[in-house]
């Protein structure tokens, strides 16, 4: 750690850089920052299994790679089962000190890879799964996914016909499989993120981390606002920070301030078509979802 400057916030993050510069991420990309921090925590003894997603491009064209660790590029739907195969292969060779990570976007997690993910967690395979969630198929043209929030613009749900369905609750679905660990995180709460990355590094069995990942082109936001948007997602209760162990024990990691949802949406052009009535309904939905989660946390703490 560097010497602390008075008033400076410091975190327990290794100084060693594993991910290199020269990657192909857009400016302000939440997914690139997530990977940089994750690799610092996981260390050089890591294998990444990356399906079709932004990170399949961000890593760079063959034979170059910005990740700094072995990367297995796999089909869109196969991140979880590819990681499973890598894990078993390493185990057969007696290599136990390698962290195997399936690293996928929301399209390859919530949708196309969902069946393989469910099968993997049902068997409680010994892998870490990280979903960086930018709430649409950003790599292929910003199409809606089941992670896209209700009311959002995408190229397939334009402003006149925004998405009408609520976002799929991935964390609760995974918790229903009774896996050892599932949690949410954002890059705006770095101490929480690094603690959870260490947990999924050191645990056995299937563990899944769902990271909210702003995408300036897809969210139509300023590159400089990515961290601010991440923080507002938490403080407005849109994306609460919590964890569930063995599908039963709930822990809230940060109590939101309860900032109005409009403060979150106004920074993103994908919501600019929403009327006052739309925003009121969005606030009601967020409050309802928070009340449900709060009851679960109180009941299963």
From TrEMBL:
Gene source species: candidate division LCP-89 bacterium B3_LCP
Protein name: 2-ketoisovalerate ferredoxin oxidoreductase
EC number, as in UniProt: 1.2.7.7
Keyword terms: Oxidoreductase
PANTHER family, sorted: 2-OXOACID OXIDOREDUCTASE (FERREDOXIN), PYRUVATE SYNTHASE SUBUNIT PORB
Domain Thiamine pyrophosphate enzyme TPP-binding: 79-211
GO MF annotation terms: 3-methyl-2-oxobutanoate dehydrogenase (ferredoxin) activity; thiamine pyrophosphate binding
Classification via Gene3D superfamilies: 3.40.50.970
Entries under CDD domains matching the protein: TPP_PFOR_porB_like (cd03376)
Pfam families hit by this protein: TPP_enzyme_C
Source superkingdom: Bacteria
Enzyme class: oxidoreductase
GO terms (BP aspect): small molecule metabolic process
């Amino acid at each position: 750690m560097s010497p602390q400057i008075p008033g400076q916030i410091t975190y327990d993050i290794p100084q060693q850089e594993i991910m290199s510069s020269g990657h192909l991420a857009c400016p302000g990309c939440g997914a690139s920052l997530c990977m940089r921090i994750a690799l610092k925590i996981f260390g050089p003894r890591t294998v990444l299994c990356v399906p079709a997603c932004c990170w399949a491009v961000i890593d760079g064209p063959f034979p170059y790679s910005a990740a700094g660790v072995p990367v297995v590029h796999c089909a869109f739907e196969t991140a979880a089962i590819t990681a499973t195969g890598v894990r078993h292969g390493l185990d057969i060779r007696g290599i136990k000190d390698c962290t195997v990570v399936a690293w996928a976007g929301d399209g390859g997690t919530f949708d196309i890879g969902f069946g393989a993910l469910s099968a993997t967690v049902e068997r409680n395979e010994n892998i870490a799964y990280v979903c960086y969630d930018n709430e649409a198929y950003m790599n292929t043209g910003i199409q809606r996914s089941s992670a896209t929030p209700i009311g959002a613009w995408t190229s397939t749900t334009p402003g006149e016909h925004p998405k009408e369905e609520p976002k799929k609750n991935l964390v609760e679905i995974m918790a229903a499989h009774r896996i050892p660990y599932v949690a949410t995180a954002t890059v705006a709460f770095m101490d929480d993120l690094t603690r959870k990355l260490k947990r999924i590094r050191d645990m056995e069995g299937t563990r899944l981390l769902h990271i909210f990942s702003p995408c300036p082109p897809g969210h139509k936001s300023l590159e400089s606002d990515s961290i601010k948007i991440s923080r507002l997602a938490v403080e407005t209760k849109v994306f609460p920070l919590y964890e569930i162990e063995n599908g039963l024990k709930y822990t809230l990691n940060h109590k939101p301030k309860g900032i109005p949802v409009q403060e979150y949406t106004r920074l993103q052009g994908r919501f600019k078509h929403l009327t006052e009535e739309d925003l009121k309904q969005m606030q009601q939905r967020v409050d309802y979802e928070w009340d449900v989660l709060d009851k679960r946390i109180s009941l299963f703490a």
